[in-house]
Amino acid sequence: MNDKDIPHQSEVSGIVPDDYEGIESRFTQVSELPSLSYCRLVKAMRYGRWHVLKGLKTQYANDPTQTQRLRKELEMMMKLSHPGILQAYGMEQNCRDREVGMNSFIVMEWVDGVTLGEWLATSPSINQRRRVADEMLDAISYMHRQGVVHRDLKPENIMITRNGANVKIIDFGLADNDSYAVFKNPAGTEQYIAPEQLSSNVADSRNDIYSLGIVLNLMHMGNAYKGVVKKCLMPISARFQSVDEIREDLERGKRHRRHARVAGFAIAVSVVIASILLGLGYAGRQKLENPSGNFTFRDSNDFVHTNWDNVTSTLTSVQYAGENKANVRLRSDYRFNGNTWISGELGFGCFRNMDKLENVTLDPPSFGIQKNSFKGCTNLKKIIMPNLEHPPHIGNGGWVTVIDSIFEPYHFDRVTLYVPDVEAFRNDTSWCKFKHIQPYNPK
Q1: Is 249 contained in some domain?
Q2: Does residue 94 belong to any structural domain of this protein?
Q3: pLDDT tens-digit readout, 342-380
Q4: Are 338 and 404 within one domain?
Q5: Separation CA 70–CA 73 (nearest Å)
Q6: Domain final position from 241, 265, 299
Q7: Fewest Cβ atoms closer than 10 Å to its Cβ: which of 78, 247, 281, 308?
Q8: Are 412 and 434 in contact (CB under 8 A)?
Q9: What residues contact 71, with CB distance under 8 A and at least 6 apart?
Q10: Which residues pair with residue 328 across a beta bridge?
Q11: Which residues does residue 339 pair with via DSSP β-bridges, in sequence order?
Q12: Which domain holds residue 153?
């Protein structure tokens, strides 16, 4: 028996494969993929499935340094098995397939998708962006628990699948962990690299956290992520120490927003009860003097003089009491005398007859708007709501109103709404009356 009589054995699986009709054991339909590094990338079909083959370019094929670098990348990837991370199947060696044109190469899964940057250019909703961010955090957290630091996280190395818009982190060519003593040079992409990576050759998971902060900032996911991004980009000692800390911080924010929504329901119930009692002659809704419920804030915020009518213990219906001016901003909450007052709704006639008002920024992630809030605002141009999880409630359970009772008729033609989720507003039966609804961009 000579070599020709011996079936080819795949060094990826160790199985002696057979060719079946329509399914071949060799790589077919080979096509070149773009690559600017020392490696060559090829897309090829085998066993009816697409793969990516990664080997050395011809000029590096006999370079022992680059060969060792490729083997290190394989070993990094073989440590990882996670749905959010590109899967490596093994190393094919002594390949005689002329169509492939490489002697040795890593065999990896093919991802049918686009880069994170390309996906963001399609203007996905804020909920879609947050879901993708959650998948990224889960994949990176897993990777770090396996002792692997990517060292080159950036939109180009995060793929989003066409089927399901799921995350796949790719390109572990610069990845490292503590068990390796080779290729410890500073590494990364300039725009995303952590400052300490420029001088350190020690792999640290906090390097990835810095890069992750820049990526999250590009995704524009509202107020919930602003603090997270800020802490990701701090000096290494003050940065999040792990991805799990980031997830815990975000979960605290979710609890806060859930509290705001529950409190919003409490306002509606309280107002209904108060109106019933008022009709019976037992109670009335009145403004109380400081500090019982009617507060005046004097600080650097645009709400220089804000009237607070305390309806529940912490949630408030806000009434603007400052000067008539062009730009006004309402914060999500205010702290006074040890209490936190959440901005729950714009009260009756909140900005009424402010003829100089042009731009309003409303920071709360969830709030309602009462009757006449923008009546008489003849120069109103922009309403910016950067953190909204859903369109504002029109009225509440106690006082039912319609959007036409809140705005002037000409506002629907002249005013532009800037919001995180444009489609949610266009699909809302009230807010769809506005002709100009644009995605919010903090820049």
Answers
A1: no
A2: yes
A3: 778 888 888 999 999 999 999 988 888 989 999 999 999
A4: yes
A5: 5
A6: 241
A7: 281
A8: yes
A9: 91
A10: 360
A11: 336
A12: 113-241
- Residue 246: inside a domain: no
**Token pair in block for residue 255:** 């609890």
pLDDT digits (tens, 9 = 90+) for 160-216: 999 999 999 998 888 766 444 333 344 557 788 888 887 777 778 999 999 999 999
Amino acid at 357: L
Question: Based on the domain organization, do 296 and 425 belong to the same domain?
Answer: yes
Residue 84 and residue 135 in contact, taking contact as beta carbons nearer than 8 Å:
yes
Backbone angles phi, psi at 403, to 5 degrees: -65, -25
Rounded to an integer, what distance in angstroms lies between the CA atom of residue 320 and that of residue 346?
9
Residue 137's CB: how many other CB atoms inside 10 A?
Answer: 20
> What does pTM read for this prediction?
0.58
**Distance between CA atoms of 367 and 5, rounded to whole angstroms?**
76
Residue 250 forms part of a structural domain: no
Same domain for 39 and 154, yes or no, is: no
DSSP-derived secondary structure for 129-141: HHHHHHHHHHHHH
Q: Do 341 and 434 belong to one domain?
A: yes
- The count of structural domains within the chain is 3
Contact 32, 58 (CB under 8 A): no
Distance CA 73, CA 148 (A): 11
Any idea what the CATH number is for the domain that residue 384 is in? 3.40.50.12480
| Cβ count within 10 A of residue 105 | 26
User: Tokens representing 128?
Assistant: 């879609």
Do 193 and 59 share a structural domain? no
